């Protein structure tokens, strides 16, 4: 899946003097506090880490509340989806106007009505809603389906993704994998159907209608 990257680099963790007797625990505690948060320094959401302390010396930073700056070598797993990247997530809720998805178990995503292809029709069976593709009868999206979608935007503060199913090679991940050989024909049919639907709507309308850089990571102290 796109949006994931492994970064090798150097970190500086700031440890207060009160925790100088157990630096290792202080470092792990600080890194754990940064998990599943977007960091501008790291350019992504920290999902996992593996670090090694560089030497036994720490630089003391003067001030009213002095800190020890501990250098670390790191391998970090980061998540930072960009527009047009393809992500996969599990559908947790859907309606006639939107599909709600969870990505990697922590980031929410929504695909609104305008980004759901017109060949998909919302239906209800046994009290449960789902989307069915009228060109590919077996292509369905329901709660629990793993879907592949394109990123439109990513809100770094609340870790919310706006997505789209309009680009090619999006939809049910299982269906895409099983029917990859038929995608070209399906895409041609989809484009033709969209043109016809757009023409119909137009007629109705007319009728009236980090790598390698040293970065600091600390939730309490900001360096300048």
Automatic annotation (TrEMBL):
Query: Keyword Transcription on this protein?
Result: yes
Cellular localisation: Nucleus
Q: InterPro entries, per this entry?
A: RNA_pol_Rpb7-like_N_sf, RPA43_OB, Rpb7-like
Gene Ontology CC: one annotated term: RNA polymerase I complex
Region named Disordered = 199-224
Instruction: Cite the entry's keywords alphabetically.
Output: DNA-directed RNA polymerase, Nucleus, Transcription
Domain RPA43 OB per the UniProt entry, residue ranges:
81-177
Q: Which domain of life is it from?
A: Eukaryota
**One Pfam family, short name please?**
RPA43_OB
Q: Which GO terms describe its biological process?
A: DNA-templated transcription initiation; transcription elongation by RNA polymerase I
**Main function:** DNA-dependent RNA polymerase which catalyzes the transcription of DNA into RNA using the four ribonucleoside triphosphates as substrates.
What is the protein's given name? DNA-directed RNA polymerase subunit
Query: Which species is this UniProt entry from?
Result: Heracleum sosnowskyi
């Amino acid at each position: 899946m796109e949006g994931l990257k492994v970064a090798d680099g150097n970190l500086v963790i700031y440890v207060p003097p009160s925790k100088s007797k157990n630096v290792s625990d202080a470092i792990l505690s600080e890194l754990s506090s940064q998990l599943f948060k977007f960091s501008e320094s790291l350019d992504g959401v920290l999902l996992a880490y593996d670090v090694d302390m560089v030497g036994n010396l720490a630089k003391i930073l003067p001030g009213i509340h002095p800190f020890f700056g501990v250098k670390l070598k790191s391998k970090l797993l980061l998540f930072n989806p960009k527009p047009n990247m393809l992500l996969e997530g599990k559908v947790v809720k859907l309606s006639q106007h939107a599909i709600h998805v969870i990505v990697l178990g922590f980031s929410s995503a929504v695909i609104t009505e305008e980004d759901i292809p017109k060949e998909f029709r919302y239906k209800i069976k046994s009290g449960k809603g789902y989307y069915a593709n009228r060109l590919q009868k077996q292509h369905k999206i329901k709660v629990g389906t793993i879907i592949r979608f394109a990123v439109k935007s990513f809100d770094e503060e609340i870790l919310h993704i706006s997505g789209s199913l309009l680009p090619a090679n999006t939809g049910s991940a299982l269906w895409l994998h099983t029917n990859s050989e038929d995608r070209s024909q399906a895409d041609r049919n989809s484009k033709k159907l969209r043109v016809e639907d757009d023409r119909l709507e137009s007629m109705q309308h007319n009728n009236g209608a980090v790598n390698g850089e040293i970065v600091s990571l600390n939730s309490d102290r900001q360096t300048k």
